[in-house]
Amino acid sequence: MRATIKDIAKISGVSTATVSRVLNELGGYRPEVATKVLAVAKELGYRRNDSAVSLVKQATRTIGIVMPTVATSFYAQIINGIEDRAYQAGYSVILTHAGVNNVRLQESLNFMVERRVEGIIGVSINLAQIDLQAIAALAVPLLLLSAQAPGNRLPYVKVDDYAAAYAATTDLIDHGHRTIALVGVDPADSVAGRPRIAGYTAALQAAGLRLDRNLIFPGDYTFEAGQRAMTTILATPELRPTAVFAVSDETALGVIAVCYQAGLRIPQDLSVLGYDNSAIASMVSPALSTVAQPFYEMGQLAADKLITGLQTNQPIQSQIVPFKLIHRGTVSSL
Amino acid sequence: MRATIKDIAKISGVSTATVSRVLNELGGYRPEVATKVLAVAKELGYRRNDSAVSLVKQATRTIGIVMPTVATSFYAQIINGIEDRAYQAGYSVILTHAGVNNVRLQESLNFMVERRVEGIIGVSINLAQIDLQAIAALAVPLLLLSAQAPGNRLPYVKVDDYAAAYAATTDLIDHGHRTIALVGVDPADSVAGRPRIAGYTAALQAAGLRLDRNLIFPGDYTFEAGQRAMTTILATPELRPTAVFAVSDETALGVIAVCYQAGLRIPQDLSVLGYDNSAIASMVSPALSTVAQPFYEMGQLAADKLITGLQTNQPIQSQIVPFKLIHRGTVSSL
DNA sequence: GCTCTGTACGTAAACGTTTACTTGTTTTGA
DNA sequence: TCAAAACAAGTAAACGTTTACGTACAGAGC
């Protein structure tokens, strides 16, 4: 069995209180006692039991991450950012996923509460009204990352999707494009879907361009959504966009894949603009032009905000983080 | 403050023992007592405190993951696999990274031991002799994933890198290639480096081909390593390989990027074979031919093995998982 | 009526820490 | 020299559970 401070106390001939004080460098002991205690601790391979500490201190120094699924690379960057900051602050991170459509959300949250996480970061989870009540009942601070709650009743960190879509569409227009498809967006998604549609629409109108609803292709941000949309576009000659604004980098790659098969050249025959600036965007050839979300930094910021909120006991303020248009090789001027 | 079983006990007029029995469905109480207790628990929003449970049960039902960094997408798939299985077994997962070159390894491991994780999965961490001693001192089961310890002194789950490199190289030879570069490999890396060099070399020899050491380009599995190597290849006319076997998908994309810049067509002018089958491989155009490692399944398997090892108290057996050659669009026959 | 068995609880110790309080000893300062 | 202050260390309670053990009571069987 693992050594405890009792063992150390017994062997070094002091009380557990003194051992604790030595180990935590609280002072109130002679140097030679400290030396002895430390030596015994090392000898026994002593490691503090955080369960016991958590119990008495009523604090676990742990935060939880919930996300739909861990599988995609941009989540990896987010997790990385969160973990880095949490580590710096002496927090550990526990990880669960909520399943597609949040099927496992409630269960995951319970899990975390039982683990007594001090706060939770919910990444890309779309909350319904009913979830909000359950979350309130949990009595644990929850910060949303790349997501937003109905009525903004939870703090969030995200980019302004409307503004990003507006800027992206405008950029395409500035490159001389007049017929621009919007691909892969989910109109039922009130956080990353509708605002992007609205931004796209507004940019067209501001430029005096006609909005063609047939150029908006619904989807779920996946590669396949891009493939499907592009296949439809090729099969519908009357559409003929000169540029497509894809709602994720993966979707953009789906569009490009179909073009490649069909012998269309990017960007000469079609301009493609992605969204996310995930790691792949800079690795494909031609490199993908895209609107960048600073995932790593967003993760850091979220962890920062959550932890300082925890420590100061202040409510967490939402924050809009800046996006950036990254021009690479998939958009050309007409 | 959060409600405890004492609160429930007091309000429902029974002892904490009975509350515990009801909550854990252990029997030994009348139905009406159970109803009452459950109602009170719900009313108070009671959640079990796992720190207390861990303390008394001497078990945390938590496993830890350590990896060099979380940033890349193939780690995401691995984490996903681990988390899924762990969840099914009622375990939670805590996550830390070891930093580049394991700078943070010892610290991370201590962290986990203090958290009393029951076992650890080390993903892609290269251990030195000295680490092994520290790990043994930790007295926590450690299973390596996509890694291997000196002298195989720790159980591992990984593909046979030698065999995979042999098969990949042979496949290229079967496509008619005679001059094949090996790109991005780290000769100092005894787990993913040297075995692949050996497999590559052996395949050439088996085919009666001459080994040209200049065709082996050292690197660190990154995109940039691929770029550097390919740049050198273009600048060195006497080499002129017709195929390159890149040691990761990202490296392969680096190679392809330089070719794209130089106007070389893939696969007509150069065949490129990747390694990993990370999510990107199927999304780029042309889609990347690669040797697939089943990351998600490896994660599942590792979690499985670790947890059953924990529960049965049996030593964990190492396991080689099968790789698969995936033919897509970047390799052509000469 | 009596013992026996089973059920339905309650009591209290234990898990490994931290920490308020107490006690005893040494140092300080006038 | 002596009281006061400072220091070093110990005692024991507390954190929230689980669980071995004890007990009271009801019904069964004779």
CATH homologous superfamily annotation of the largest domain in chain A: Response regulator
**Largest interface chains and counts:** A-B, 56 and 56 residues
Mean of residue pLDDT of chain A?
A: 94
* Share in helix of chain A: 40-55%
Number of strands of chain A: 12
Compute the number of structural domains of chain A.
3
Using only CA atoms, what is the Rg of chain A?
26 Å
Number of helices of chain A: 12
How far from one another are the termini of chain A?
A: 73 Å
Question: So what's the CATH class of the largest domain in chain A?
Answer: Alpha Beta
Quaternary state of the chains: homodimer
CATH architecture of the largest domain in chain A: 3-Layer(aba) Sandwich
CATH topology of the largest domain in chain A: Rossmann fold
Largest sheet of chain A: 6 strands, parallel
Low-confidence blocks of residues of chain A: none
**What's the overall geometry of chain A?**
elongated
GO molecular function (chains A, B): DNA binding
Protein name (chains A, B): LacI family DNA-binding transcriptional regulator
Keywords (chains A, B): DNA-binding, Transcription, Transcription regulation
Domain HTH lacI-type (chains A, B): 3-57
Strand and helix layout:
2 copies of one chain form a homodimer.
Chain A: H1 5-12, H2 16-23, H3 31-44, H4 50-57, E1 62-67, H5 73-88, E2 92-97, H6 105-114, E3 119-123, H7 129-138, E4 142-145, E5 156-159, H8 161-174, E6 180-185, H9 194-206, E7 216-218, H10 223-235, E8 243-246, H11 249-262, E9 271-276, E10 289-292, H12 295-312, E11 319-321, E12 324-326
Parallel strand pairs in A: 1-2, 1-3, 3-4, 4-5, 5-11, 6-7, 6-8, 8-9, 9-10
Antiparallel strand pairs in A: 10-12
Chain A binds a DNA duplex (30 and 30 nucleotides) through helix 2 and helix 4.
